[in-house]
């Protein structure tokens, strides 16, 4: 990123952000495992990206980008500033993927860090200098006035509502889930809390993760991320940071067998695992007579605390099943995971053996 020493000062110095925000925890006690943020600049960034992407994909009926809300009542000056920013995003970002492009990831992380800054060129506080190309700084600062006036209040409310819904689930189950997943993947859960930026819009998938540093972005408005699915999506995304040993084991087995690496097998395995772990948390398997003494009153449908709609007779449907991921080219993976990975999750097989069996079955 070039330094923006000569950034044009389009941002009125009198305009300040709302009260500074840090991690939002929706309760008195700090949350374990994750820290949630509803940051102004990162929300603006994703909204602009989404609008630019939507224009690019206007003719593409396969596009999963949700429709933008009807443009608010913009004055001619506001419309010009907004259009300039969308044009910048169209020209520079719309053809790159938020989850895989490192430049775009660096922009996102910087905007996330500067959530409490009123501007991005460092003219009021040196720490607020994003060191972006001047044209990007100008576009964001000019669009910020429009975004704040017309969209941000609603987006911020949606983000805070999502956080208020997810926080009790994380408070009650976060530590246990983190330990369980780290154990499954034979990896270490990060010592620091994982930063999760909640945005009205995330990407086509509704959530994504970037590594080094490990950071998660989740859409608060995406219908796929609501209710108990919030817990699954959080831990699925965080698992991207634990996938190294799984990817290595797959690679090793493929090399030994002289097979090509099955595309996205590691990712299907992550979806499968998080889905099963959350399902078990909500609906533990029926306890056997020997480990469920009648005096405890435990029942087959008792669930972990803090889960709002459990116990319930309806089974939890994991994300990958609900959203049809296995039907889109992953049917073979699903069969192999059910047959060879599930025994590992149940403690009846070891890690290397399970991976070896999956790879040889494909
Ligand atoms: Zn994923």
SSE topology sketch:
Blueprint: E1 34-37, H1 40-56, H2 76-92, H3 102-113, H4 134-150, H5 152-185, E2 194-199, E3 207-210, E4 215-219, H6 229-239, H7 244-257, H8 265-282, H9 319-322, H10 331-345, H11 351-361
Parallel strand pairs: 1-2, 2-4
Antiparallel strand pairs: 3-4
Helix pairs in contact: 1-2, 1-3, 1-4, 2-4, 5-6, 6-8, 7-11, 8-10, 10-11
Summary tags:
disordered N terminus; 362 residues; 5% strand; single chain; mainly alpha; 47% helix; four-stranded mixed sheet; 11 helices; binds zinc ion
Largest sheet: 4 strands, mixed
How many beta-strand runs?
Answer: 4
From the alpha carbons, calculate the radius of gyration and give it in angstroms: 22 Å
Alpha-beta classification: mainly alpha
CA-based shape: globular
Global mean pLDDT = 86
Secondary-structure element string: EHHHHHEEEHHHHHH
Fraction of residues in helix: 40-55%
Bound small molecules, by name, code or SMILES, are: zinc ion
Unreliable spans are: 1-18, 289-302, 309-313
How large a portion of the residues is in β-strands, by DSSP E? 5-15%
Terminal residue distance: 43 Å
**Physical arrangement of strands within the biggest beta sheet:** 1-2-4-3
Number of helices: 11
